[in-house]
Amino acid sequence: MEVIDKKFVSLNNMMTKLRKKKCPPEGLLLLFPHCIQNSTCKQNIKHDINECKRCGKCKVMDLLALSEEYGVSIAVASGGRIALKRVMAEEVQGVVAIACEKELRTGLMAAMPKAIYAVPNLRPHGYCVDTDVYMDDVIKAIKFFVKNHKKVS
Ligand code: SF4
Fold first, then answer.
1. Which residues contact 121 (CB under 8 A, 6 or more apart)?
2. What CATH code is carried by the domain that includes residue 75?
3. Does residue 153 belong to any structural domain of this protein?
4. Which of 7, 15, 118, 149 sits in a 20 to 30 Å window from 142, CA-based?
5. Distance 138 CA to ligand 1 centre (A)
6. The overall pTM is greater than 0.90
7. Is 53 touching ligand 1 by the criterion CB < 6 Å?
């Protein structure tokens, strides 16, 4: 199944690239899984992402910095249904979604035809705990949506 999930994710990204969807930074949502938060961290970022103290023990700090740098929205995917509701909101024109391939496939199928660039996470400690992500992949995905975006006046 893992192979199918990976193939589905790369096919999705290929289709998203072909669509050449552009959107203003404020129309882009950066969604990441709660398991990226360091497992020893007591901050309730699920309740409010700004509870992150930016200590640098996990990539939440980097993702927050990136969302500020590019002016894009950011959210923790705290549950399948809540995440889907957020993704499907009318104001969300594009999504950069970080997760494991299995979650990505499920989410991509449910959110079709929303333009989503999927970024598989890294799992040095296995699934769902202290996961990680290549920031270069996230930056590439954000730039894909917001670079050369032309404002409609
Ligand atoms: S950067 Fe530090 S404070 Fe923020 S979520 Fe990660 S461990 Fe917690």
1. 33, 35, 36, 98, 99, 100, 131, 132, 133
2. 3.40.50
3. no
4. 7
5. 18
6. yes
7. yes
Let me know if residue 151 belongs to a domain. no
- Decide whether any atom of ligand 1 lies within 6 Å of the 131 Cβ: no
Q: How confident is the model over 26-71, as pLDDT tens digits?
A: 999 999 999 999 999 999 999 999 999 999 999 999 999 999 999 9
Phi, psi of 107 (to 5 degrees): -65, -40
Probe target for ligand 1 pocket from 47, 52, 131, with the most ligand atoms within 8 Å of CB: 52
The length of the chain in residues reads 153
Q: What is the extent of the structural domain holding 122?
A: 2-146
Q: What is the CA radius of gyration of the chain?
A: 15
Considering the domain boundaries, does residue 107 fall inside one?
A: yes
